[in-house]
Amino acid sequence: MDMRLRSEVYPLATTFTISRGSKSQADVVVVEVEAGGHLGRGECVPYPRYGETVEAVLTTLEELRPAVARGLDRPTLQQTLPAGAARNALDCALWSWEAAQAGCRVYELLQAPTPTPVTTAYTLSLGTPTAMEAAAGEQSNRPLLKLKLAGDGLDSERVAGVRRGAPDARVIVDANEGGDPQDAGGLVAQLSQLADLGVELVEQPLPADNDSLLAQIEHPLPLCADESCHTVHDMPRLQTCYDLVNIKLDKAGGLTEALQLRDAARAAGMGVMVGCMVGTSLSMAPALLLAQGAQVVDLDGPLLLSQDRTPGLHYEGSLLLPAPIGLWD
Q: Which member of 23, 146, 248, 251 is catalytic?
């Protein structure tokens, strides 16, 4: 099997800001594998929060070239690389190649039903309450908006502004680990205030390595693990602290692990959210299979780009249609 690696850059339509900083482009790594006249490919988005860079991901994958040439398969890959962006790109490429070799789509390999359209959240960049109200007004036709919060005392004003700008939209928020793990009373008060403002879900209110407080307090609204949730091994702890898990292929290290994590979450009685980093349609297509039946879908990465790859996914507003043949099969 031959493997080709490359990095690509996709400018964003506007600068995207969260509490950790701002970005103006999506930096992705693409993996292509080819054997027997069949091609498979996958994409990952290296994420600095987890110590990842484009250069490090390329180096990691390059070191696997001899193993890939000998026919590295997905089960062996799970034992060879840890969860993360590098494993995700190669895992998805191998899924794509297996489907091409079998002459079918990946969902058929999984013996899953034909994918159907899903409604995705649309993420509003962090800004002042006034700016976020204006941004919400521009997206007021979307049924589900996701807000980035900062934990700086202005979050309730941001949410209130978004509610004014898009009064008919459902709202979820991402706290990005911004809460104080030593302030139980303050956290419950903040969550209650968000619930009163009509927020339906809060992602990751506390730091991933210091979130045990969530098992000890009431949840005025559902809480979703994001940075705390990577693989199925996290599940025993998560189910005592959270109501849902946000599964992202780049965190889980590919579709193989993500499917196991989804099944484990459902078996534990937890809800499933399927999210993404800011990448192209090639990153979203495998996650779209995972999103079938999820309680919350957040696969809006291509909507934040100034231009997606071709062919790409098709969005009708916030309705995300199944992947076309030729994108990722």
A: 248
CB atoms within 10 A of CB 241: 18
Please check whether residues 152 and 251 belong to one and the same domain: yes
One domain for residues 186 and 255: yes
| Distance (Å, whole) CA 27 – CA 50 | 15
**Do residues 59 and 162 share a domain?**
no
Length of the chain: 329
What domain range is 289 assigned to? Answer: 118-320
Tell me, yes or no, if 251 is annotated catalytic. no
Phi then psi for 200, rounded to 5 degrees? -100, -20
Number of helices (H), then strands (E), belonging to the chain: the values are: 12, 14
Those residues with Cβ within 8 angstroms of residue 252's Cβ, 6 or more apart along the chain or in another chain: 83, 88, 230, 231, 258, 261
196-251 per-position pLDDT tens digit? 999 999 999 999 999 999 999 999 999 999 999 999 999 999 999 999 999 999 99
How far, in Å, CA of 174 to CA of 18, rounded? 9
Residue 13 within a domain: yes
Global pTM value? 0.96
